[in-house]
Design a protein that fits this description.
With 220 residues, the protein is α/β, with parallel strands linked by helices. It has helices at residues 18-31, 39-43, 50-58, 65-82, 92-101, 114-124, 147-156, 170-179, 206-211; strands at residues 5-8, 105-110, 133-135, 163-167, 182-186, 201-203. Strand 2, helix 6 and strand 3 (133-135) form a beta-alpha-beta unit.
């Protein structure tokens, strides 16, 4: 199959941020007197949008006043306490540049809020990806529903058959499959190969994928 486009997840795929997001939610719940479980439980929910994480973690709908307050507070906590410490995952920038140099259409399908996405892409020195990004806030349902992947496909103007998504969670795998596109999974988000079942291929991190690019599904 010819590959003409690539969609990136960002958190846990290009930026080592899954634990930071989990800590921000945990601290937000703790402030509000809510029991969302420990940080590891919450980390396993990162990759969903808040429309799914809040009901799963604490039984609160995102669209209620309390849900909106929690979501806004989590964003503040993340930016104030955790954003400055984030680092790009090994090979992230190099992988993005290599795929751009191959003249592939690049886009983003993420659960991150648009303002957070810009900050995250700065960590990777790949802010240009924001030009063709779809976020969970722009669609009716976040991953593992396919909405954000389908919106990202529309941004890059290619059919699902010509595109691969690179992600790090089972939610990326399911959302991609439901949108009809193949997915390459990376273990750097903290998930096992068994949990990433359904991916066309699994690599350790962006650097590992880049090192094996010619044998990967991206080679076409």
């Amino acid at each position: 199959m010819t590959v003409r486009g690539v969609l990136f997840d960002v958190d846990g795929t290009l930026v080592d941020s899954n634990v930071a997001h989990a800590k921000a939610w945990h601290e937000t719940f703790d402030e509000a007197g809510l029991d969302g479980g420990d940080i590891e439980r919450i980390r396993h929910l990162i990759g969903m949008g808040s429309d799914k994480l809040l009901p799963t973690a604490v039984g609160i709908d995102k669209e209620t006043p309390e849900g909106k307050r929690l979501s806004e507070r989590r964003s503040q906590v993340f930016k104030e306490r955790h954003l400055a410490s984030l680092r790009a995952l090994p090979g992230s920038n190099e992988l993005v540049v290599a795929l751009r140099d191959r003249e592939l259409q690049l886009g983003v399908a993420t659960s991150a809020k648009p303002d957070e996405l810009r900050d995250l892409l700065k960590v990777v020195d790949a802010e240009f990806l924001a030009e063709k990004a779809a976020s969970g806030d722009e669609v009716d349902a976040s991953k593992p529903d396919p909405d954000v992947v389908e919106a990202a496909l529309a941004r890059i103007g290619l059919p699902a058959s010509d595109v691969i998504l690179i992600g790090d969670t089972p939610y990326d795998v399911e959302a991609s499959q439901r949108a009809g596109i193949r997915v390459i999974a990376l273990r750097c988000g903290g998930w096992s190969d068994d949990e990433l079942r359904g991916a066309a291929a699994v690599y350790a991190d962006p650097a590992d994928l880049l090192a094996h690019l010619e044998e990967s599904p991206l080679a076409g």
